[in-house]
Every structure is written in C-alpha cells, then in structure tokens.
UniProtKB/TrEMBL annotation:
Residues 12-63 form the Helix-turn-helix type domain. PROSITE patterns: WYL. Coiled coil: none annotated. Residues 160-226 form the WYL domain. It holds the Pfam family HTH_11. It comes from the Bacteria. This is WYL domain-containing protein.
Length: 252
C-alpha cells in the first residue's frame, strides 16, 4: 500500500471512529454510504478498530445496526510516547500543587488512568516516572531571564523541543547549541538523562561530553538540537545529587 493510500485509510478509520462515537446504532449501509466505501470494506475497517480495542457491537440480520458498547468510556488508551510523557508531566504538576479545586482526587484519577494502560505502556510509564522530577518554583531572579515565548511553544510547533524529548525517551545522544547566561553560544554533545521542572522552567539533567561531567541545561536556552546515532545507558540519579540537592525535588 502506497503512503498516500495508507494516509487515506488512516483518515477513514478516524472518520469511522468519530461516527461511532457521536451516533447511536447506524446501519452498515448508511455508514458505508457516508464514507463512500463498500459494506465489505466497512466490515474490514470495523475489524481493524476492534483489534485496536474499540468495543464495537453489530446487530445481526437485515437492517442491523453498528454501535459502540453501551458501557464504552475511556477504555484501553492507545497513547504515543509523547502523549504518555505529556500526561505524566501534567499529573505531576497538579500533584505538586496539592489539593486544587478540580483535582482533589488526583490520586484516584492517576489510578484509573493507569488501569487503562496496556502492560507495555505501564512499563514505559514506570521508566519515565523515574526520570522526571518536580522542584520548587523558579526564583524571581531566574524568571527575569526566562524566555517564556520559547518555552510556551508546543512540541509540534517547535522541532527543537521534539528532538530533545525523542532523544530523552529513546536514550540517544544530542548535539545542541546552547546559549549561557552571558548569551555566549557553545556546541555541546550531551546525554539527556533526567527532566526537571522548577516551574515554569524546564531543565535537562545531562552528561556533558564537552565538560566530561554532569550539567544542567535550561530548555529555553537550547537554540538548536540534533539527534545523534549514539545511544546511552541512563546514569543513576545519585550522579546528579549535587544538582538536585539545591532544590526541593519531588519524583513523579
């Protein structure tokens, strides 16, 4: 199947999923007509969605309808790596702020979400949780030099952040251009071992091959990033203890 055909097929599956979520039972004839496909193709697509975990019911017989199971809700989540890490970060921030108006039962929310993950996703989440940390809010002095516009960009709109996250998750070395406090730019080869949030500023706790030592890098000061083929093994958190003891750190 060509890339164009694959894209069209994925788009059609998304349309079918949206139809099933937004309507009561519909006949296969009506759904096939809306998607401009044959009923045979429709049943193949339904089979694929079922394999993905969507609980689709089909009433047998002429005029039978197709619908989602009446108890369908969140169900088993299908999350990409980036979505998993974004969800964890959001939960961690909420937890670090304590009891809030809408998230007073956040521990129960976390438990319910965890119950929705597949075993493979749970293992990925466990690994990521050990590598993401929340600390105290940034000081006024630190905030005065914070480039908020850069940090506020979404991952999709900021390819540099996307590369950092991918290298972090898949244990690959990064070559970055970094601007220090004096606006001096240097090129560094680093290993992104841990993420750290001193709200609202994100940092990388990394091994710096230029300095041959551990270093901390602010996200908003990373000008460019390039993923290198070399992989690394995550260093123990104790290697970064000198950095972490400077803040009140909370593990995710």
């Amino acid at each position: 199947m060509s890339r164009a055909n694959t894209t069209r097929h994925l788009d059609r599956l998304e349309q079918l999923t949206a139809i099933l979520k937004s309507e009561d039972a519909l006949t296969t004839k009506r759904i096939a007509a809306e998607l401009n496909i044959s009923e045979r193709t429709l049943f193949r697509d339904i089979g694929l969605l079922r394999e993905r975990g969507l609980p689709i019911e089909a009433d047998k017989g002429r005029g039978g309808g197709i619908k989602l199971h009446r108890n369908w809700g969140v169900g088993r989540l299908s999350l990409e790596n980036q979505e998993v890490i974004d969800l964890l970060i959001s939960l961690a921030i909420s937890e670090s702020m304590g009891q809030t108006l809408f998230m007073g039962n956040i521990q129960r929310v976390r438990n319910k979400l965890m119950a929705s993950f597949s075993p493979k996703q749970k293992e990925k989440i466990h690994q990521l949780r050990q590598r993401i940390h929340i600390g105290a809010q940034a000081s006024p002095e630190t905030l005065s030099s914070f480039h908020h516009q850069h940090e506020a960009n979404t991952v999709k709109a900021n390819p540099t952040i996307e590369k950092i996250h991918n290298a972090f998750m898949f244990h690959q070395r990064l070559r970055i251009v970094y601007k220090d406090f004096h606006d001096k730019e240097t090129q560094r080869d680093i290993e992104a071992h841990y993420l750290y949030l001193g709200f609202p500023i994100w940092y990388l706790l990394a091994w710096d091959h230029l300095r041959n030592d551990v270093r901390i890098f602010r996200y908003d000061r990373i000008i460019k990033a390039e993923i290198k083929p070399q992989e690394f093994t995550v260093r123990p958190l104790e290697d970064f203890s000198a950095i972490l003891t400077q803040q009140d750190v909370k593990t995710l």
